[in-house]
Amino acid sequence: MLRWFHFLAVALWAVPGFTAPAEAVSAEAPVSESPAALDAARLAATLATLTPEQWAALPPELRDELQALWGPAWVWGATIHVGAEWRDNVLLSPVSSTDHTLLRARLESYLWRRPVGAWEWLGFLNGDVGRLLDPLPELAGEQEWFAHGEGRWTPRPGWRIGLTAQSYYQDHVFDLSATETERLVARMRVRGARAGMDLTVPLPRSLAWVAGAKAHRSDYADFAEDFTEEEGHTTLRWRSDRGEGGSLEANLGWSERRRTHPDRNAYTAGGRPLPGTQLEFRINEVRLETTLIRGVWTGSLAIVGLSNRDLASGYFNYAEQGVQLTLERATPDWRVAVEAGGSRSRYDVQTVGIGFAPPLRRRDHRELLLRAERVLNPRWTLFAEASEERSRENEAGGTYRARRLAFGVSRTWEPSAP
Hints:
single chain; mainly beta; Porin
């Protein structure tokens, strides 16, 4: 369950062209230059400081000129990726794997409301649908959808309160072995929703403090894996902008989640269900992330430490350490990226094998992704991907490898982009 949760947490795709306007809102409004001399970002920052009453007080001719320079109130864009994909292990089997080809279509879209006074609104809708050319009895295809809506209130530069709502649906093969007494890999359908609030407070020396809370509910079809979850989190951010020389950002975050499975029992230390109980987890996570941008290069490193504790006998207790590295080179014609990550989970109570002193359960997970994009023009892009995923346990039957090759074409629409 936790491995899927991490995948989902990282499944929120970034949308090009969105970050710059959001940062512009937090900039100080210029006071010595006329609107005609402002670039789009500084103009957005200036207009964002006006309240509705101040905007209405401007002469109509000036409002029309500013609106024409600023562009439409709503900015939207979408990209559709269409291609073919080859996999050698779609069912994540540890003993038998066969080659399969999928046709895949992926949607990435966003809608952004330019700041009005201290408020701005944004949303994402992303989808990914794949179909096997030679369907299996247990799997004909897979899909996932993710919707995100957010309202941001910026009462003064650097200060922000964000309200978020998210919904998702997934239908594909999951590996939920991380918190199971036995290996559970199967096709599952799951839907869920999250809602949360974040507060950002600026601090001296280019620092900012972020704190927030979330509520999460997830429902599985045909499996007793449903859960509800409450989360509190805080992050200390530091950013150094060096203009054209690049930027460096570092985030140190901590979170605690309380997860309850209403349809599952807690377990004894010997691995037997406790009738009349509910399985509950407390999950603490510490994450350090750094991102360096220098010219055409972008590099990021994330180091994660996680502690999972069940609130009964401790049978599901484990600690996990992980690392994720990304390196990207982007030019007007080419974008090339490499992503590599891995994690190790060590269980406190669960053992594998038989005997007087069987070893404690241990699990390693590795992922590698290579992606190349050839930009033909602002609308059309060719892409190719290759990835490999490995999961290895010291328990028989807990090891598998899955490889993937994909290629296709992307089409982008941004008719209202600034």
